[in-house]
Amino acid sequence: MSETRFFCKPKSSLPAISTGDFFLGLDCGQAKDYSALSILRKDGKRYHIVHLERLELDMPYPQQIEKVFQIMNKKPLDKANKTLAIDYTGVGRPVVDLAQDRGLNPIAIAISGGNAVTWDDSRTKASVPKRDLVGTMQIFAQSDRLKVASGLRFGPVLAEELASFKVKIDSRTAHDSYGSWREGEHDDLILSLAVALWAAENYYAQTHAIFRYVSRGHRQ
Questions:
Q1: For the domain that residue 86 is a member of, what is the CATH number?
Q2: pLDDT of the residue at 186
Q3: How far does Cα 184 stand from its chain's mean position?
Q4: Per the domain annotation, does 86 fall within a domain?
């Protein structure tokens, strides 16, 4: 059983911080792979990684969703704006269905090798090129806009993996390829972070900007 540590008192779900906008990313592991959960808190133009967790190996998917449900409905997330993004690739499909049935309204992100983001009609499922996920994460990390909270057990692991994650450009085709993605030991943490950050920047921000625009009476 893997230990989970939050940077607050034992048995507390999340640090005692003020409410705000939170973004959760869930990467679902297969067979003997870990599932990972990341939680970001938006602070101006920065994001603070306030929680990193590897779920127990072989934890059933319904139990994983129940765990996420409990976290989202306890302080400080219970009264906060929160968005859950789940990797829809592979085993993520039934997990998204479970999350929908539980009322969590997840954003499903299917990782693709294409060049453009596509949404379904309901804007609850997106096909996202791998380069977009990686690029967003790298931009925020390199511009000092992605902070890992002190005291997180997997914080140093994530920081090391972010630093070593490489992008390669094929000079003949100009196509980019990436270092291990769900092949390395710690890719689960990176992927859970990547889907949460991408959703924050590409779904939540846009939909809330539209809402604010309409709510002020600026209708077309």
A1: 3.30.420.240
A2: 54
A3: 18
A4: yes
CA distances from 28 to 42, 96, 108, 216 (A): 24, 10, 12, 39
- What pTM did the predictor assign? 0.79
Close Cβ partners of 104 (under 8 Å, ≥ 6 residues apart): 65, 68, 69, 72, 84
Residue 1 inside a domain? The answer is no
* pLDDT greater than 80 at residue 111: yes
Helix axes of 187-199 and 155-164: crossing angle, nearest 10 degrees: 80
What does DSSP assign to residue 220?
A: -
- Tens-digit pLDDT profile for residues 163-177: 666 554 444 544 555
pLDDT range class, residue 50, cuts 50, 70, 90? very high
What pLDDT was estimated at residue 141? 86
- Strand locations in 160-203, DSSP E? 167-169, 176-178
The answer as to whether 81 is a domain residue is yes
Domain that holds residue 162: 21-215
Within a domain: 55: yes
Q: Which residues contact 217 (CB under 8 A, 6 or more apart)?
A: none
Alpha carbon distance 91, 83 (integer Å) = 20
Residues 6+ apart with CB under 8 A from 46: 144, 145, 146, 147
